[in-house]
Amino acid sequence: MTIADIKKTAEAKMDQSIVAFQNNLGKIRTGRANPAMLDAVQVDYYGSPVPLSQVANLSLIDSRTISVQPWEKGMGPKIEKAIRESDLGLNPASMGDLIRVPVPAMSEERRKEMTKQVRSEGESAKIAVRNLRRDANDAVKKLVKDKLASEDEQKRAEAEVQKVTDHHIADIDKRVTAKEAEIMAV
């Protein structure tokens, strides 16, 4: 493996960490309704738990209401039960075939809890990126130890990996700040 391969691999893994972080942020509730809030809800579908998005169509009616349109007639009560039993604190209401899920406004205290959760997710993502930096630097040091690269190349590679790491950490900070602003907006 060459130094270029190590850098490319580290950057690709850091990008994957950012994507995973973004997915985790999408699951954190803000004041607005978002169909992604229901991604974690599992529905009993003929004896096996299935993600809600695989048995129903999810969309927004307005900024505070999610509509859930089951694909099969008998799934309505099971979907309602699954949403009610999830730890999201939502109370679905059935209107014929359509299930409306109103998203209540969050209290100030709840908003502050959510911002703490966002910061915690951000810190976890930063730790993941820093661990990838360490792994890349260790791989470069191994190349130098095995006499496949010079110490000058090692210093250059470590500086470039640090630049990539700084870029990814700045991106995480930016996303955390944006999400906090979204949560605190009433």
Query: Major β-sheet, in short?
Result: 4 strands, antiparallel
CATH topology of the largest domain: Topoisomerase I, Chain A, domain 4
Rg from C-alpha positions?
Answer: 22 Å
Please write the string of helix (H) and strand (E) elements: HEEEEHEEHH
**Count of discrete structural domains:** 2
CATH superfamily of the largest domain: Ribosome-recycling factor
Oligomer: single chain
CATH-derived architecture of the largest domain: Orthogonal Bundle
Number of helices in the DSSP assignment: 4
User: How much helix is in the residues?
Assistant: 55-70%
Structural class: alpha+beta
**Average residue pLDDT:** 87
Approximate shape:
elongated
Question: In terms of per-residue confidence, which ranges show pLDDT below 50 for 5 or more consecutive residues?
Answer: none
Give the DSSP E fraction (strand runs of 2 or more residues): 15-25%
Number of strands: 6
Query: What CATH first level of the largest domain would be assigned?
Result: Mainly Alpha
Question: What gap, in angstroms, lies between the N and C termini?
Answer: 52 Å
- Major beta sheet, strand line-up: 3-4-6-5
Q: How does this structure look, described?
A:
There is one protein chain. The chain is of the alpha+beta class and 186 residues long. It has 4 helices and 6 strands, in the order H-E-E-E-E-H-E-E-H-H. It has helices at 3-27, 76-85, 108-145, 151-184, and strands spanning 42-45, 48-51, 56-62, 65-70, 93-95, 98-102. Strands 3-4-6-5 form a 4-stranded antiparallel sheet, covered by helices on one side. Helix 1 (3-27) packs parallel to helix 4 (151-184) and helix 3 (108-145) packs antiparallel against helix 4 (151-184). The protein is elongated and about 70 Å long. The N and C termini lie far apart (52 Å). GO terms for molecular function: ribosomal large subunit binding.
